[in-house]
Design a protein that fits this description.
single chain, 119 residues, mainly alpha, Serine Threonine Protein Phosphatase 5, Tetratricopeptide repeat
Length: 119
């Protein structure tokens, strides 16, 4: 959680591209943490806190030149939770790119939070 908050606060000492990279890394970390909290620890309270922080990361990306489209690189990550989380924020903007990714996750990860997110 502290890593997500730190990424949101860093602005002055880095370039916009560096901040974008930091926010993408924070989103990826948050997605992995969120799905682990759900699937392995059944800790929905902390899972919800992480989800709110991830949403704040997306809002911060929306304020930047590239916008949330920067999350598209996460659609190619090996972790299905990362791909599903990024897809959820990108589906309206790039459905032709996102839908095949979400279908593949849903078919291969039934019973996991990544499969549920993809559904």
């Amino acid at each position: 959680m502290a890593a997500l908050r730190s990424a949101l606060k860093k602005r002055k000492s880095i370039t916009e591209r560096q901040r974008e990279e930091l926010l993408i890394q924070a989103f990826e970390f948050g997605a992995k943490l969120r799905h682990a909290l759900h699937d392995q620890f059944l800790d929905t309270a902390r899972e919800n806190k992480v989800a709110k922080s991830m949403h704040a990361v997306v809002k911060a990306l929306d304020e930047m030149r590239s916008g949330r489209v920067a999350l598209a690189e996460l659609l190619d990550r090996p972790d299905p939770g990362v791909r599903a989380s990024a897809g959820a924020y990108l589906i309206d903007m790039m459905p032709d790119r996102v839908m095949p990714v979400l279908r593949q996750i849903e078919e291969g990860n039934k019973g996991s939070s990544a499969g549920f997110s993809a559904h």
